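Usage

Read records sequentially. Each one opens with the input sequence:
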Amino acid sequence: MPRTRLWIAGLAAMATVMSSATAATAIVGEPTDIRRNPWIGYLSTINAGYQDCAATLVSPTRAITAAHCLGEDEYLTFGRQDRRQQRGVVVRFTTVWQDAVHDIAVLALDHPITGYRPLPLVEANDAALYAAGTPATALGWGDVEGSTELHQVTRPVTADSTCKDHFRNEFDPGTEFCTGGKDSCQGDSGGPVVAGGKLIGVIEGGDGCDVPGVHVELIALLDEIQPHLR
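and closes with the structure output:
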């Protein structure tokens, strides 16, 4: 089955079919405080009234997201725990670089934002953060009915062979990695995957809630990304 890239996957709902044939929705993960994660934002229109894809602030003027998230949105919203709030900052962005093949993009903010600590990007000597079993945390606001707050879920990095067995030719072990298994859904597309206090991946897609989540392996693309962060 081909893997689909997810516009809004959520840290999302796992539908459990009950014996009565009705479906119950459960949040996979838990709410988290935006103040502990000031680097996460979401793509939006100027009024920031809805959340599309997520993005990660990696410097006062640069953010990283998934290339397939780019479209009509022109603004990033940071510092908003609940999408219904009016807190935080909304800043316009332009795309300075994108790689559609590897599903990665660098966004330039119109002006530096202060008070929102960037998340360090993975470095060339951080290969150990991708070892199978390493706890990795994905964050997002999700697309779950009744949920408008930021959530997170921590899952282990899985072996490339596990991902390849499921996705076959749709998974590239050279530029992608997987987390989780049959215990959770993805976070919002374009959002962060964090390990060791660093941004190691960008949430890309999957086949649903019962399979590994697929993420862009940022360490493999550092040479392409770094020139656009200045």
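Summary fields computed downstream for this record:
- The mean pLDDT is 81.
- The helical segments are 160-167, 222-225.
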